[in-house]
Structures are given as structure tokens and as C-alpha cells.
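In response to the reviewer comment on reproducibility (Comment 2.3), we provide here a single inverse folding case reported in full, input and output, so that an independent group could reproduce the run without further information from us. The C-alpha cells appear first.
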């Protein structure tokens, strides 16, 4: 029988910093919630609280609409694979 892995407690980055509002123009703050392919990371991986996760999602969607953040990134640009 396999043992359960114990993970360290994840803390909400935004509530520790006492952020009141997450602005869509602050792309440096939004990068924390995005994967390397610019997908929105789930709460269970980032440790963000529900209140801030909703604000992050809205801010990322607004930033994508204004073209500050790309919607998708081509896999070929992310992973440098051998040429075929």
C-alpha cells in the first residue's frame, strides 16, 4: 500500500499581500496564475483563495481581450523538439 504524500500548505499570495483588487494591466502579477502555455492555473495548484481566484480569472480574461496576454501559445514555440 502506497503512502500518501504530504504537501506543504499553500498560502494565498494575494491575501498575504492584502491586495484589494487585481488589475488586468498588471501582467507581472497575472503571470503567477498562468502556466507556461498561458492557461489559467487551478486553485489547487496555486493555492489562491476563491475570492482572489475569481478576480484573477476576470483580470486574465480582460487582459486577453485587450491583447496584453495571448489566448494560446503554439506548442512548437514552447517545446523545442527535434526537427523531423
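Designed residues, in position order:
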Amino acid at each position: 500500500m502506497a503512502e500518501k504524500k504530504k504537501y506543504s500548505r499553500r498560502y494565498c499570495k494575494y491575501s498575504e499581500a492584502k491586495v484589494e483588487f487585481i488589475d488586468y494591466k498588471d501582467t507581472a502579477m497575472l503571470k503567477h496564475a498562468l502556466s507556461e502555455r498561458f492557461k489559467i492555473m487551478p486553485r489547487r495548484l496555486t493555492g489562491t483563495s476563491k475570492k482572489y481566484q475569481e478576480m484573477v480569472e476576470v483580470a486574465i480574461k480582460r487582459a486577453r481581450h485587450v491583447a496584453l496576454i495571448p489566448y494560446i501559445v503554439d506548442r512548437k514555440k514552447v517545446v523545442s523538439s527535434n526537427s523531423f
